[in-house]
Amino acid sequence: MKIYKVGGAIRDELLGLKSKDTDWLVVGSSIREMLDLGYKQVGKNFPVFLHPTTNEEYALARKEIKSGHGHKEFKFIFTPDVTIEEDLSRRDLTINAMAKDDNDQIIDPYNGQTDLQNKVFKHVSDAFYEDPLRALRIARFKSQLPEFEIHHSTKDVLHAISKTGELHHLSSERVFGEVAKSLNGKFEEFLTVIKDYGLSEPWFSEIEKIPKFKSDVPEIKWSEMAEANNFKFARYLKIPKSFSKQLEMWQHFSGYKLNEHIDYKINFFSGFSNNNLESAKFTLEFFPLIQKECVAIIEEYVNFNFGEICSTQNNDIEAVKIEELKQIIRKHEE
């Protein structure tokens, strides 16, 4: 039984970066032995274990045989005779197919260190074709390491995957997992790879333009990308609530017309309340031409005490709201 540190932790260490997670690979062991040593099994499709004291993940070395569509349909072989080289051959990129033993010796059968020095993304083997999610991972890595280039052979693989229809079999959750990581880097690099290699269907349809992003906030980047593509971008991808709320607010202000009729503005501002005041003010920072007028109207409107007026004058609250909003709008238009 031998234990190796593997994957991204080795890559990040060689790049001088701090790795968020450390993955461990166990060669020459079995499920029974791992359980006897006190590890807790958590993997369903193939054996992954939690270390009894550190709680880090340890996986048995494995080989894979594709048995269906997407990134889940695989049969796994994890017998004790699976070698470190066989396990690493199934990984996506050469820079992620390195391991380090307990003597700090790097095992690098696919020249990952060379590709790291040359700043190249290169797939390890033909196994790359079998998992369509890896195409999106290339795009994600490009956002995180934008100075790296995609090897010409891997470009051919991306084009090939785009034509298989396999991307349709990915889950929305896994796709957005790659998006979320990319949004924390140079999202435009992720989008460029998706667009240039035909990887947009079905999750990133309607990519016509990639804007120059004004913010590092992921939700704002998403909204900017949506606006640049007529709010048709990634319509079939399930996004977190914070993204959908921000997108709704962004789309609302993107269509605001400064010189429109009073009835239009009453309808536009009547839906605001204290619950979305801060979100509105934050969003309007990115719309300088309408920011002053909109912030002034919204703040005064949501802070007006309509309840007090209605209780003393016995008036219909909706009618009072409309009349007061009309006066607020006219005041700030002057």
UniProtKB/TrEMBL annotation:
Which species is listed as the source?
Answer: SAR86 cluster bacterium
Could you tell me what this protein is called? tRNA nucleotidyl transferase
Name the Gene Ontology molecular function terms of this record: ATP binding; metal ion binding; nucleotidyltransferase activity; RNA binding
Poly A polymerase head domain segment(s): 4-120
Give the family per the record. Answer: Belongs to the tRNA nucleotidyltransferase/poly(A) polymerase family.
- Gene Ontology terms: biological process: tRNA processing
Give UniProt keywords alphabetically. Answer: ATP-binding, Magnesium, Metal-binding, Nucleotide-binding, Nucleotidyltransferase, RNA-binding, Transferase, tRNA processing
- What InterPro entries does the record tag this protein with? NT_sf, PolA_pol_head_dom, tRNA_CCA-adding_enzyme
